[in-house]
Design a protein that fits this description.
The complex is a heterodimer of chains A (about 110) and B (about 120). Chain A is an all-beta fold and about 110 residues long. Chain A has strands spanning about 5, 10-15, 20-25, 30-40, 45-50, 55-60, 60-65, 70-75, 85-95, 100-105, 105-110. The termini of chain A are far apart. With about 120 residues, chain B is mainly beta. Classes of the chains: A mainly beta (about 110), B mainly beta (about 120). Chains A and B meet through strand 4, strand 5, strand 9 and strand 10 of A and strand 4, strand 5, strand 9 and strand 10 of B.
Chain lengths: ~110, ~120
């Protein structure tokens, strides 16, 4: 059974700091991995999608890496801003007949102005 | 990108009544949709997989008679919470997977409060 864990569970940083969020998964047989942002009481905003054959993806100040063999992904946020404050979720997709997302436990990020 | 629309965004209902939540894919067809539930300060937990034209597949521990899923067309899946109780109060969100190597797309979510 796939289990996805995120560390840390919560993080508070001053504005401008670079930070790394971690995601680990137990079954390396994944199709892709997706990072989401969730604001309080809201739905999900997709940030980055990494295919199983890729090592990293970048979008603006965000960079996500994937090491499938070790079951790890990181989300790097450069020059953090108060507007980055949210819960960040990673999710892995197995594909095929079980084409569903398994979500991580989430990291609650607070960027202090 | 593809859009998934979920309605209503929030609903308050009395204990014992039923509530229907709709999930529509607006510009693409979805033979499969997924329903998730999220309790406060917790991650999303998959409840069931909705399959167009066939029965839904439920995750372990999810009561299929309580959470009725219907996927009658390629663009619409519905989740009905029957005989709702306060412990069913939660955030429900649907998702449709993209085709091939595409990303998954999510609805806006529905906040259900049972009083």
């Amino acid at each position: 059974k796939q289990e996805v864990t995120q560390i840390p569970a919560a993080l508070s940083v001053p504005e401008g700091e670079n930070l790394v969020l971690n995601c680990s998964f137990t079954d390396s047989a994944i199709y892709n991995l997706q990072w989401f942002r969730q604001d309080p009481g809201k739905g999900l905003t997709s940030l980055l999608l990494i295919q199983s054959s890729q090592r990293e993806q970048t979008s603006g100040r965000l960079n996500a890496s994937l090491d499938k063999s070790s079951g790890r992904s990181t989300l790097y946020i450069a020059a953090s801003q108060p507007g980055d404050s949210a819960t960040y979720l990673c999710a892995v997709r197995r594909g095929g007949a079980t084409n569903k997302l398994i979500f991580g436990t989430g990291t609650l990020l607070a960027v202090q102005p | 990108g593809a859009v998934v629309s979920q309605h209503p965004s929030w609903v308050i209902c009395k204990s014992g009544t039923s509530v229907k939540i709709e999930c529509r894919s607006l510009d693409f067809q979805a033979t499969t949709m997924f329903w998730y539930r999220q309790f406060p300060k917790q991650s999303l937990m998959l409840m069931a997989t909705s399959n167009e034209g066939s029965k839904a597949t439920y995750e372990q521990g999810v009561e299929k008679d309580k959470f009725l899923i219907n996927h009658a067309s390629l663009t619409l899946s519905t989740l009905t919470v029957t005989s709702a109780h306060p412990e069913d109060s939660s955030f429900y969100i649907c998702s449709a997977p993209g085709q091939g190597e595409s990303e998954a797309f999510f609805g806006q979510g529905t906040r259900l409060t049972v009083v």
